Amino acid sequence: MDIPVLDWSRFTSGNDPKGFVADLGKACRETGFFVITGHGIPKALIEDVYKRADQFFALPTSKKAEVAISKNPHNRGWAQQGSEALDETSGLKDRKEAFNVGFDLPADDPTVIAGAPFRGVNVWPDLEGFKDVMLDYYRHALDLGRALHSAIALDLGLPERYFDSHFTEPMATLRVLSYPAAPDGEGIGAGAHTDYGSITLLMTDGVAGLQVKPRGGNWTDVPHIEDAYIVNIGDSLMRWSNDLYVSTPHRVLPPKMARRSIAFFLDPNPNSVIAALPDTGVAKYAPVTAAEYLRSRLDATYTPEPTS
Ligand SMILES: O=C(O)CCC(=O)C(=O)O
Ligand SMILES: [Fe+2]
Question: Which of 21, 167, 266, 269 is most buried, judged by most C-beta within 10 A?
Fold first, then answer.
């Protein structure tokens, strides 16, 4: 099955919003994966994120360990090689390392003080410019993700602004990923999984490895289109849409040469209740808060150390 390529500017320019929404809806219902061109996120900013990520991953282990995600209860910081298995049934650890940036909150935010789930401050390496570039990219990706949800709302027969209140302070995670060259081809870069949130915006450097497995189909390579986002539906949105939309399994094979990607996982606000959207039929799932759902999925992937 082909992965549809959709030009976002058809929606934003006002030239063909209805046509765009129809194509988007079809992609969300059938493949759960599509490619977005015409998104307007500056190439220079994307390049800068790769550059800063490279600088971070090149730091000595002891420096990276200072911002380890294993010590962070809010899913922020560095995930070292061998610390995660996206396919927890495979017995294989992912051959990758990563760094997570969450929704940026000040230390005196009441939800941070209260220790609310996923409401922590970000952790930053001691690298000039790193924080500013990551937060700049985060804002751009969040704007795009929110705007895509207005097109999604229209496809689902909802008011255009329906999702706005669910993404005011969302559990969105910017995750830069680094897969070392694995000429032996052994193991897995990222095990087969579906994403947990609403949608994921993925930028990759073009090194092959990413594959999807559409329902009833076989593993297929995701074609690379320069500067375009690979967007996929996560399990929260599948649940929310009462299975009208599909979240599709994907994986990363161990790449022949070093591979980098920039994922932006857009999950709703922690307290958003994910319950069958209006007019989607008899609810197939019990309502759950977005935070409870995300925690349950992350717990299967890696285990944070106790903080006390
Ligand atoms: O690195 C990639 O291309 C995909 C990574 C991915 O699917 C994930 O981290 O959820
Ligand atoms: Fe994924």
Answer: 266
Kindly give the distance from the C-alpha atom of residue 250 to the centroid of ligand 1, in angstroms, as a whole number.
8
Query: What is the Cα–Cα distance from 83 to 69, expressed in whole angstroms?
Result: 10
CA distance 83 to 163: 34
- Whether residue 84 contacts residue 302, with contact meaning beta carbons closer than 8 Å, is answered with yes
pLDDT at 292 over 50: yes
Q: What is the number of domains present in the chain? A: 1
Q: What is the ipTM of this complex?
A: 0.99
- What does the pLDDT look like over 196-223, one tens digit per residue? 999 999 999 999 999 999 988 999 999 9
**Residue 308 covered by a domain:** no
Q: Which atom of ligand 1 is nearest to the CA of 259?
A: 1
Atom of ligand 1 at shortest range from CA of 195: 10
Our answer on whether the CB atom of 204 is closer than 6 Å to any ligand 1 atom is yes
Q: Residue with the nearest Cα to atom 1 of ligand 1? A: 261
Helix (H, G, I), strand (E, B) or coil at 49: helix
Nearest ligand by distance to the CA of 302: 1
